[in-house]
């Protein structure tokens, strides 16, 4: 079997289990999560933005969320906690999960092939590329954390903006 097909199949199973599990946890938690110690996390701007998107657009938000970073877990959890019917959620999960698996399998294997060739022919350049990639990721994370720490944490900002 082709490497890309095998990797995509494995990733597809993983994403179905992970996202389906997140949906199930959200379904079981339901409104209770909003009254628990998780309520602070669910009142963040990101969760509220995802919740408004799901309320407005429904299942397509879940499918598209698989092509984003940091949005899909919130989308699946909130779809479950909002009790999205399985007849709407499962098709979104299958389509979005397939897209996610294909993107990660093709791009991921491509990056690994390039790095393997680079390590074989020019190891110093390969180490420099990996270090640069790690620095870029760490810099992005640090920037986002600083930006989030500076912005005020007001739970009703989105709701107040929609009412006016």
Provide structural commentary:
This protein is mainly α. It is built from eight helices and no strands. Helix 1 packs across helix 6 (86-121), helix 3 (45-57) packs across helix 5 and helix 4 (59-65) packs antiparallel against helix 5 (72-81).
Features:
164 residues; mainly alpha; disordered C terminus
In short:
The protein is mainly alpha-helical and 164 residues long. The chain is built from 8 helices and no strands. The protein has helices at residues 3-29, 39-42, 45-57, 59-65, 72-81, 86-121, 123-150, 157-163.
**Which percent range fits the helix content?**
over 70%
Strand portion: under 5%
Ranges where pLDDT stays below 50 over 5 or more residues in a row are: 154-164
What is the tally of beta strands? Answer: 0
Rg, alpha carbons: 19 Å
- What form results from the Cα inertia axes? flat
Order of helices and strands: HHHHHHHH
**Tally of individual helices:** 8
What structural class do you assign from the helix and strand content? mainly alpha
* Average pLDDT figure: 83
Biggest sheet features: none
Distance between the termini: 57 Å
Topology:
Blueprint: H1 3-29, H2 39-42, H3 45-57, H4 59-65, H5 72-81, H6 86-121, H7 123-150, H8 157-163
Helix pairs in contact: 1-5, 1-6, 3-4, 3-5, 4-5, 4-6, 6-7
């Amino acid at each position: 079997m082709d490497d890309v097909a095998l990797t995509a199949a494995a990733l597809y199973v993983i994403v179905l289990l992970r996202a389906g599990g997140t949906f199930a946890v959200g379904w079981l938690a339901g409104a209770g999560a909003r009254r628990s110690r998780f309520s602070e996390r669910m009142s963040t701007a990101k969760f509220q933005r995802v919740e408004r998107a799901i309320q407005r657009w429904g299942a397509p938000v879940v499918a598209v969320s698989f092509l984003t970073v940091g949005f899909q877990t919130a989308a699946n959890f909130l779809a479950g906690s909002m009790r999205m019917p399985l007849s709407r959620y499962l098709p979104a999960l299958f389509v979005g999960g397939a897209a996610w698996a294909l993107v990660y399998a093709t791009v991921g294997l491509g990056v690994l092939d390039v790095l393997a060739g680079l390590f074989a022919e020019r190891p110093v350049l390969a180490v420099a590329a990996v270090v640069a990639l790690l620095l870029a990721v760490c810099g992005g994370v640090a920037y986002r954390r600083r930006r989030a720490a500076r912005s005020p944490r007001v739970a009703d900002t989105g709701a107040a903006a929609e009412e006016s």
